[in-house]
Design the sequence.
C-alpha cells in the first residue's frame, strides 16, 4: 500500500496542474497575471520557480517527491503522509515491544538488543516526530481549506486588516465538513483511498460568501 501511494504521488502530477493558455482575465480582477508564464492565472494558482510553471491550488514544492503538491495530487500527498506516519509509529511500537521483552527476559534463544536495533530507533523516532508534525499541519490546513501558501498570505492579510480596524476571513473556508470533502471527496468511505475524481478543473473554487454548490464539489 505504501509503495502504491508513493508511486501515485510521484506520477499524479508529473506535469503540475496548469490551465489553458487562452485563459483571459475575468471581471473584478479574479485572475492574476504571471509575468514569468505571460498568462493570467486563476485564484489559488502560484508560479513554482522549480517547475517553472504556474500550479493550480499550489501548496508547496516537495523535494522528497521531486514535484509540486497542488490541485491534482494534494489528496494523494496527504494520504501518503498519513500512511507513512502510521508505518513509522508501527515500526517504533514493534521495536519498543522487542526491547521491553528483552528487558523482561521473555526473548528466548539468546535474543538481545543489537546495534542494528539502536540504529533503527535513532532513525524511526525522529521520523515519527517530523512526519507527525507534518501530518498535523496538513490536517489543520484541510480543516481550514487553506494551502501552505495561503496560510502565510493570511497571516499578512490578518495583520493588514487589523491595522485598518477590520477582520480578515479566509475566503475559501466553507466550514469543517465542506472543507474536508473539498479535499477528500464527498464519499466518506473513500477518504482514505487515493481517488481524485471529485476535484474538478481547479480553475474555480467555491468561496465562503457564495451559495454552496448542490454536489459540494469544486466548480469547473
Sequence:
Amino acid at each position: 500500500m505504501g509503495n502504491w501511494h508513493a508511486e501515485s504521488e510521484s506520477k499524479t502530477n508529473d506535469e503540475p496542474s496548469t490551465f489553458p493558455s487562452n485563459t483571459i482575465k475575468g471581471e473584478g480582477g479574479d485572475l492574476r497575471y504571471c509575468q514569468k508564464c505571460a498568462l493570467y492565472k486563476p485564484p489559488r494558482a502560484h508560479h513554482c520557480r522549480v517547475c517553472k510553471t504556474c500550479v493550480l491550488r499550489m501548496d508547496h514544492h516537495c523535494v522528497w517527491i521531486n514535484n509540486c503538491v497542488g490541485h491534482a495530487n494534494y489528496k494523494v500527498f496527504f494520504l501518503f503522509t498519513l500512511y507513512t506516519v502510521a508505518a513509522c509509529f508501527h515500526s517504533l511500537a514493534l521495536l519498543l515491544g522487542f526491547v521491553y521483552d528483552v528487558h523482561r527476559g521473555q526473548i528466548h534463544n539468546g535474543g538481545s538488543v543489537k546495534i542494528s536495533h539502536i540504529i533503527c530507533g535513532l532513525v524511526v523516532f525522529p521520523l515519527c516526530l517530523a512526519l507527525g508534525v507534518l501530518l498535523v499541519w496538513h490536517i489543520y490546513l484541510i480543516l481550514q481549506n487553506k494551502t501552505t501558501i495561503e496560510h502565510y498570505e493570511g497571516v499578512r492579510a490578518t495583520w493588514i486588516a487589523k491595522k485598518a480596524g477590520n477582520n480578515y476571513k479566509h475566503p475559501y473556508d466553507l466550514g469543517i465538513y465542506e472543507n474536508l470533502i473539498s479535499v477528500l471527496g464527498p464519499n466518506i468511505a473513500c477518504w482514505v483511498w487515493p481517488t481524485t475524481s471529485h476535484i474538478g478543473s481547479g480553475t474555480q473554487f467555491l468561496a465562503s460568501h457564495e451559495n454552496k454548490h448542490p454536489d459540494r464539489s469544486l466548480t469547473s
Remarks:
- The chain is about 45% helix and 10% strand.
- The beta strands are 32-34, 39-41, 46-48, 53-55, 60-62, 67-69.
- The two ends are 31 Å apart (CA to CA).
